[in-house]
Write a structure and sequence with these properties.
YjiS-like, 3 helices, elongated, DUF1127 domain-containing protein, 66 residues, mainly alpha
Length: 66
């Protein structure tokens, strides 16, 4: 394995780890909201995992600018 390939692979894993952490932070924040707060933003408690895993997709069918 050459250095450039190794750095690229390391960056790929680091980026994936950072994305996972972002999803987990979002999931945690959403889980802390009350039912009323979730309704206000248009999602149900059952949609939290979906929303956290698919941040670019709005469960209401609206595409985000991300």
């Amino acid at each position: 394995m050459n250095t450039i390939h190794g750095v690229t692979e390391l960056e790929k894993y680091w980026d994936a780890f950072q994305e996972w952490r972002k999803r987990e932070r979002l999931r945690t924040r959403l889980c802390r909201l009350s039912e009323k707060e979730l309704r206000d933003i248009g999602i149900t408690r059952g949609e939290i995992d979906y929303v956290a895993s698919n941040r670019a997709i709005d469960p209401r069918g609206v595409r985000s600018a991300e």
